[in-house]
């Protein structure tokens, strides 16, 4: 490839990176009401580190047997 093409691609990415870093919207702040509701659940609940978040759903036995 020509040097000018590589330079154009590099400068295009540089412009996109600088634009996103300068004009990016600030991250949304969490509402103040959710903090008080999240604290009791995080400190008072049982430890569930080893358990899955949702139960695994299995297919019914009727659909698993060949007809």
Give the key terms.
67 residues, mainly alpha
Summarize this, please?
The protein has 67 residues and is an all-alpha fold. The chain is 55% helix and 0% strand.
Topology (elements, then pairings):
Blueprint: H1 3-23, H2 33-44, H3 61-64
Can you characterise this structure?
- This protein is mostly helical.
- 55% of the residues lie in helices and 0% in strands.
- The chain is built from 3 helices and no strands.
- The chain has helices at 3-23, 33-44, 61-64.
- The chain is flat, with a radius of gyration of 26 Å.
- It starts with a helix and ends with a helix.
Helix content: 55-70%
H and E string: HHH
Query: What structural category do the secondary elements indicate?
Result: mainly alpha
Q: Describe the biggest sheet?
A: none
Tell me the Rg in angstroms. 26 Å
What is the molecular shape? flat
Distance between the termini: 61 Å
What percent strand?
Answer: under 5%
Average pLDDT works out at: 74
């Amino acid at each position: 490839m020509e040097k000018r093409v590589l330079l154009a691609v590099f400068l295009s990415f540089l412009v996109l990176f600088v634009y996103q870093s300068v004009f990016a919207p600030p991250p949304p702040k969490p509402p103040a009401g959710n903090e008080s509701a999240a604290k009791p659940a995080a400190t008072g609940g049982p430890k569930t580190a080893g358990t899955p978040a949702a139960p695994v759903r299995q297919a019914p036995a009727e659909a698993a047997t060949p007809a």
